[in-house]
User: What shape does this take?
Amino acid sequence: MRTWSDLCLVCEGQQEFVVNVHEAGPYERSHDYTRVLYCAACAVGELRSFSYDGFVVFGEEDEVVVWSSVLPAADVDRLRAAFTCPTPLAGGCGCPQHVRAYDTSVRVDKTRLPEHGPDRHSPAGRTTVSVAVVEGVAEFRSVD
Ligand SMILES: [Zn+2]
Ligand SMILES: [Zn+2]
Assistant: This one.
């Protein structure tokens, strides 16, 4: 099983793991997660969705697909303050807060990061996502 990093796309430094929105695995041949990460050095957050599928046919599809959006520091703060679940790093949690965060994270515009070539995991051109609190529960929204 390979391991993956959640390093900052801008400075390549270690990021704080703020919320595990959803996670399945890691299993021997698959691993999916959606996480909110924060880089203190860059003062910018990230909504990252990662998928590893070890069953794809070699050369036909990428094994690893990473999607990312910028989450501004103010939105990371809002998420920290509003996230109603006591275990934000429990990616398998099925509470209303985790479910709302995951459902809305799927819908917002994220940018697929190139997995190969000189622009691999380049942060350039990413979409931005914000956090809104609706009826006491935090959710993600696309920023136009
Ligand atoms: Zn950084
Ligand atoms: Zn929860």
